[in-house]
Amino acid sequence: MTDRTRFRRVARFVSPVDRGFAAVVYGGSILFALLIVGLFVELVLGSWPSIAAFGPSFIWKSSWDPITSKFGALPMIYGTVVTSLVAIALAGFVGIMAAVFLADFAPRWLATPLSFLIELLAAVPSVVYGLWGLFVLAPFVRTAVGPALQKTLGWTPLFSGPIYGVGLLTAGIILALMIVPTVTAISRDVIAAIPRDLREASMAVGTTKWETATRVVLPAARVGIFGACVLALGRALGETIAVTMVIGNRPEISASLFAPSYTLASVIANEFTEATTSIYTSALIELGLILFVVSVVVNALARLMIWRVRGST
Amino acid sequence: MTVGALRYRRLKQRRVFGSLGTALALLCSVLAAGSLLAILGYVVVQGVSAINWNFLTQLPHPIGVPGGGVGNGILGTFIIIGIATAMAVPIGLLTGIYLALFGRGPIPEALRFLSDVLSGVPSIAIGLFAYAVLVAPLKHFSALSASFAFMMLMLPLLVRTSEQAIRSVPQTVREGALALGMSNFRATVRIVLPTARPAIITALLLAIARVTGETAPLLFTAFGSQYWEANPNNPMAVLALQVFNYAISPYPDWQAQAWAGAFLLVVAVFILSLGARLMLRRAMRGLDS
Question: How far is it, in rounded angstroms, from Cα B151 to Cα A152?
Fold first, then answer.
């Protein structure tokens, strides 16, 4: 008997009690599906006045002026993209390196506590990251990291201009800390899932352990690791409170990473309860809709890539 | 120079390069783990000194009046998470049962996809949904709307874990129960669910840990309050929200309280995470035996 037919027979629900049970189970599932569909529908409905008023140019207009009711999302999209890119550049490198070490080099007595600590990093609440970022990291960036970067790389527009402490760079670093556990944990699992044969074959032709890890195992795991990075990117894009506390909250576009900026999520967090006109509220909800659509696309991509390697759960 | 010497030197170089690479990889792991310790250390040092009995039990004082606490926020956190759990568990469990028992074909696949989508939606967007459903129509902020948002945040984890936990109960156990004449309903409720319980509780603890420190959706759902509030239909103080508001305030008194509140949040979340880990170990053991 195949697994499938066996499954069907067992799961046949005939008695009245079982019919009732099945109905309740269906009901719960339908409710769950309705909630998710409702989430999307409500976001579209809420942003409809804004969509009708501004059309697609909402995405590339850069004025954000509640007084004249002119709204454009470009500064927030820019801030969201830049902070997330800084975060993924830092967390990607550190996270993948840590994953390589934990999977292939660390002895058990070291790998277990290190993995544990890195995974606990993911449990720290966002608002605590924000608090730490505001009172510890931001002053550190203003007095140490910023001046050092400006001295060495100040000739590029990226590191020019005054250093406030709060801004794109600080937000990016905080985000990097928040997403590094995602990158590390998934990459480590993907690397560990690469067959032993591959490592042994590589070692057998005389490579060093490091060469095996970086030139044989990493390329074999690259799709899954890329998926981990994309998943982490999705988290960075939507992260709200910590970023709101350290980004400076100014709807401006400037090339310097030291400049204060704004993200899609943090403008909603800051201005939603203060929005006085209905078009203002609607514009903020449209920012939420953009965030929703982007995060759905990014997450779907990431899961596809991770599944391809690890196999569906 | 002979070919042999050349080979030897290159091997030596490669080994040195390998050691340097390994050291870099070690450094990255220590950097990631160390940043946790840096954050925790700071929270503990700054937080503990501001914690005392009054902080845990009193109402916030107005600006300029020293002292005061976050008692109402702690109460609010319990109430909001309690209601969220009461709503999320039945829906999550029923959907998990559905996926485990009827889980083949396009509809269950679509449901799994939706669940994964939901787990990636930023909490602020879910807050907007809760606002649209429960705040805008009723024209006032409420703890209930915050519970609704938290429920949405808890659901994906509950759904996927209960599905897997129920699936991992051996089919033979089910068949045994059915062979004894149990209905599917009784077999599921009396035999399968108790076996899957440790794994489901693990997921529940993790889901609660996730929302305990969640702040973004609270800004326009629970909103916050200066008073003791137990009616879920009213705006309510929440610890995470108080930490946020105190942190961005310009007053040193409040900033100190923000650290103390952060300390409480971290302790709560870590206890929940550790509890989940212990529970998971029990779940694994249960399946082995």
Answer: 49
Residues of chain A with Cβ-Cβ distance to B155 below 8 Å are: 32, 35
Size of interface A-B (CB pairs under 8 A): 277
Do A163 and A238 fall into the same domain? yes
Residue A133 included in any domain: yes
Find all residues with CB under 8 Å of A193, minimum gap 6, and list them: A221, A224, A309, A310
Looking at the domain covering B53-169+198-288, what would its CATH class be?
Answer: mainly alpha
> Does the model's ipTM exceed the 0.90 cut?
yes
Domain shared by A107 and A20, yes or no = no
Q: Do B17 and A46 touch (CB under 8 A)?
A: no
Q: Tell me which H or E stretch contains A64.
A: strand A64-65
**Mind listing the pLDDT tens digit for each residue in A197-232?**
999 999 999 889 999 999 999 999 999 999 999 999
A81 close contact with B: CB closer than 8 A: no
Structure tokens at B246: 């105190």
pLDDT tens for each residue of A15-48: 788 888 989 999 999 999 999 999 999 999 999 9
User: For A75-85, what is each residue's pLDDT tens digit?
Assistant: 999 999 999 99
For residues B196 and B199, what is the distance between their CA atoms, to the nearest angstrom?
A: 6
Token couple for A274: 């203060």
Q: What are A81-132's pLDDT values in tens digits? A: 999 999 999 999 999 999 999 999 999 999 999 999 998 999 999 999 999 9
Do A101 and A26 reside in the same domain of the chain?
Answer: no
Closest-CA distance, B65 to chain A, in angstroms, reads 23
On chain B, the residues whose CB falls within 8 A of the CB of A117 are 32-33, 36-37
- Structural domain that includes position A50: 13-57
Hey, what amino acid is at B114? L
Please work out, in degrees rounded to the nearest 5, the angle formed at the alpha carbon of residue A232 by the alpha carbons of A101 and B46.
80
Q: Are A67 and A130 in a shared domain? A: yes
Flag whether pLDDT at B155 surpasses 60: yes
Q: What is the pLDDT of residue B2?
A: 58
In this structure, the answer to whether residues A168 and A144 fall within a common structural domain is yes
Give the closest of A17, A135, A239 to B185, CB-based.
A17
Contact between B258 and B243 under an 8 Å Cβ cutoff? The reply is yes
- Give the closest-approach CA distance of A253 to chain B in angstroms: 23
Question: How many domains is chain A partitioned into structurally?
Answer: 2
As a whole number, mean pLDDT of residues B46-60 equals 91
- Where do the structural domains in chain B lie, given as residue ranges? 53-169+198-288
Contact B102 A11 (CB under 8 A): yes
Q: Are A151 and A42 members of one domain?
A: no
Predicted confidence (pLDDT) per residue in A143-160, tens digit: 999 999 998 988 888 998
The answer on A226 and A116 residing in a single domain is yes
